[in-house]
Write a structure and sequence with these properties.
There is one protein chain. With 368 residues, the chain is of the alpha/beta class. It is 45% helix and 13% strand. The protein has helices spanning 2-11, 19-29, 32-37, 40-45, 50-59, 64-75, 126-137, 154-165, 186-194, 213-224, 238-248, 266-273, 283-290, 304-308, 313-323, 330-337, 341-353; strands at residues 79-82, 101-106, 114-119, 144-148, 169-172, 198-201, 227-230, 252-255, 278-279, 328-329, 357-360, 364-367. The strands form two sheets. Strands 1-2-6-5-4-3-7-8-9 form a nine-stranded mixed sheet, with helices on both faces. It has a three-stranded antiparallel sheet with strand order 10-12-11. Helix 1 crosses helix 6 and helix 10 crosses helix 11. The radius of gyration is 22 Å and the shape is globular. The termini are far apart.
């Protein structure tokens, strides 16, 4: 693992190689080591890379920072998650700019069946606090992973409430795992870990919580979840950035409305008014829209039409995935089927037209 990790860490240091470029390279070569060992002539011709980036890769020789980081990772039992690792948050892989390498401390499943992000202002009102607590209380029986940014305000309320209710919760950080920011939340972070949650970041140790890290961090919050829920926010701030990113990633965004005279709800009201978020008044609304409402366990009857329709290989693969549980997200179908996105889309459309499967809000599918 150490040798693989050395090259993975080094890849994040190569000048001119950002997350988008790294994704292209990993898709082409399969591993970070193979990227560094590839011929320059091949790298030169690779679309999206070109001569300048190829030269940067081939001329990179300083692995000292990577070696130092490995020592930190091993000492504190951090889990490094590269793009190709099975434990890497698979939902991020469908974003155009997924973090090349993540650092994780915790036991929560980053690929849980249902993941929600709860976000909002750092200076919440009592209204926002009550909404957050009631929202999570009403979802306590659901197998949901709650993520947020470990900031003051709504983030902290979401983490604390989730932990108290026994829901795993993960804090997405804008700094390295050698610290907790704000420092006042060090105890909360420890409690989250004790309760089966975790801390996740793309930043290596010694990285301070600089201002420009937070918008970058927000894309992980937006990309890693199935749904983003905005509790309270003004017109400016991280929550609005996260909501915008979530929309860009084709994720579902929900928001609680507030008084038109309340600046702390101005952002939520704007998102709802401009159709960038769906208005909800409680957990029931969101669960229904996502197709997550609790259902009585019933013996599923095999669709009669399947007996008479000759299915293609692609359709059979997707149907088998849908038989495993009540609902399956499109992201999960894309990953588990090992089919191209276009093949999945075509197969799903045909199955829908044949009334074998039905689509639900939240980009979910189930057998009819």
């Amino acid at each position: 693992m150490t040798n693989d990790l050395l090259y993975q860490l080094a890849l994040t240091e190569v000048p001119h190689i950002g997350h988008v470029h790294a994704k292209i390279l990993v898709q082409e070569f399969g591993s970070a080591e193979n990227i560094f060992k590839a011929k320059k002539s091949f790298l030169d011709k690779l679309e999206g890379i070109g001569a300048v980036r190829a030269k940067s890769i081939k001329s990179f020789t300083d692995f000292s920072r990577a070696e130092k980081e490995i020592s930190f990772i091993e000492k504190y039992q951090i889990s490094p998650l590269f793009l190709t690792d099975k434990q890497y948050p698979r939902r991020l892989l469908h974003c155009y700019d997924p973090p090349t390498l993540l650092f994780y401390k915790g036991t929560a499943d980053l690929n849980a069946a249902k993941i929600i992000a709860i976000i909002g202002t750092r200076s919440n009102t009592e209204y926002g606090k009550k909404i957050t607590e009631q929202l999570l209380k009403d979802m306590a029986l659901q197998p949901i992973l709650v993520i947020s940014g470990l900031a003051f305000g709504i983030d902290a309320i979401a983490h604390k409430t989730a932990s108290r209710l026994g829901l795993p919760t993960v804090g997405i950080l804008a700094h390295g795992l050698d610290q907790v920011y704000p420092t006042e939340h060090a105890g909360l972070a420890r409690e989250m870990l004790r309760q089966g949650g975790g801390l996740l970041t793309e930043y290596r140790s010694q990285t301070k919580p600089d201002k420009h890290n937070f918008p970058t961090r927000n894309r992980i919050v937006a990309g890693m979840c199935d749904a983003t829920i905005v509790i309270e926010t003004s017109m400016k701030g991280g929550s609005m950035i996260t909501a915008e990113l979530a929309n860009g990633y084709n994720k579902d965004v929900f928001a609680f409305p507030g008084k038109t005279t309340d600046s702390k709800s101005a952002g939520c009201n704007y998102l709802i008014r401009t159709n960038k978020a769906i208005l909800i008044t409680g957990a029931k609304d969101m669960l229904e829209m996502m197709g997550w409402e609790e259902q009585k366990k019933k013996e599923r009857i095999k669709p009669q039409k399947e007996l008479f329709i000759e299915l293609t290989r692609e359709q059979k693969i997707i149907l088998e995935l849908l038989k495993e549980k009540d609902t399956v997200a499109i992201d999960e179908i894309n990953i588990k089927s090992n089919l191209s996105s276009s093949a999945v889309a075509a197969a799903i459309l045909t199955l829908e037209l044949q009334n074998i499967i039905i689509s639900l809000p939240g980009k979910l599918y189930k057998i009819a």
